[in-house]
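If you are new to this repository, start here. Below is one unmodified record pulled from the training split, so you can see the exact layout before writing a loader.
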Amino acid sequence: MIYMVCATILFAFGPVLVRIGINQDVSPDHLMVLRLAVAFPLFFIAVALRKNVGEAKVNREDLLFVLILSVAGMGGAMFCFFRSISYLGASVATIIGAISPATAILMAYVLYSRPVTGRQVASLLISFTGVVLVVMPMVGLESFGGIIRSSMVGVGYVLLANVCSSGAVLGFEKYMKSKSPLVAAFHVTGFMFLFFGVAIGVPDMHFGLKTWVIVLLLGSVAWFVPFMLFFHGIRAMGSSNAVLVQNIGPMVTVLVAGVILGERLQMVQLAGMVVIITSVYLLKTGGKVLSKPPIDPEEAPPIPL
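And here is the target side for that same chain:
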């Protein structure tokens, strides 16, 4: 579980960095391309240093699957989430995105016949409650209730990002049966960079120092390192458990916003952090299966991406 926890903490810096980048007059689409432009060479270097060049070749039978996984899965999730931040802001986009574990668990059950445990259900409910407690003071009850009225486009982007992300997590779990996490990350990032680089285009490079620092952090600290840890976490825990752990992300985002932006944490936010930590502990302790018994992962049907 330590891999997923570390990945989530580093990924949690992303929304704040994206919001700062947008404030620097860089479009969310171009921020995405620049992030991938930084990350892809890092993955290439890592593959070369680990001497995984032979494994790095994409098998012909996997080509279509990896392309769909990269573009419609992780790429679609990043594209939609970046745009949602431009409409809603990092805080509101994050709290709506917290429903992604429910999407992933449902997809894992329907597509993989993955059993759902009582502790998974309890952890999901507790963690979502903690997310609400942590983020709600940043947006206010009135703002949260008026999200749909004020920006249906932003809400739609977040919900679509949740679907894409959940599908990508399940697809990664399948793909890593034949590829190492490093090579899988290299393939997905490469396909994303090629596709969205061509589709969106190369942005104007006349940025200030602050913008370049944000871009470098987005591609390395908030993508290259946590993406590798993310793959290891999925392999060790399974997709349903992995996305539940990701609910600590909003907590870290609030902490980062407090340090960088000077936002004061309220008691309700501290209570929410305790609730989230409790949910992660509950997930780690395991539990009794409430649905049908588990099946061999090798017999799981392919995901219809």
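Two things worth knowing about this chain: Confidence is low (pLDDT under 50) at residues 287-305. The chain has 15 helices and no strands.
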